[in-house]
Amino acid sequence: MAYFSEAMPAPHPNFDDRDFWAACAEKRLQFQACAECSTARHPPTPVCPRCRSFKVTWKLTAGRAEVYTHTTVHHASHEAVKPNLPYVVAVVTFPDVPGVRLVTNVTDIDPKEVRIGMQLALWWDVIGGGMHIPRFKPSSSA
Ligand SMILES: [Zn+2]
What we know:
By secondary structure, the protein is mainly beta. Helices cover 6% and strands 35% of the residues.
């Protein structure tokens, strides 16, 4: 069962992020990186912000992440999220892909317990249309 209700609009992959979403569909979380200078970036963009190269590669994360910052949502901005209130929106970083930050949800925890620096584990939320959304929960070693 999806984290949010089926009324939650799904992402619409575009030219720049279609490879990101295609990897997610295979349960691989990968981030775009520059093939020239190796700088990772997210969301995907056509040009490296560091060296202006158009050459692209991808860096796969094993799925361990850390809370960079977070907030708790108490008011529904969309019908689909009402049953989840309050829920956590977090920006997370990845020790194995330095330089990228991902906006996601931290689940399976009381929002009051979420802390900056908390160690997280990736889980795949399967939504309609075969899309997989990367979300995180506290890692068992935390
Ligand atoms: Zn570059």
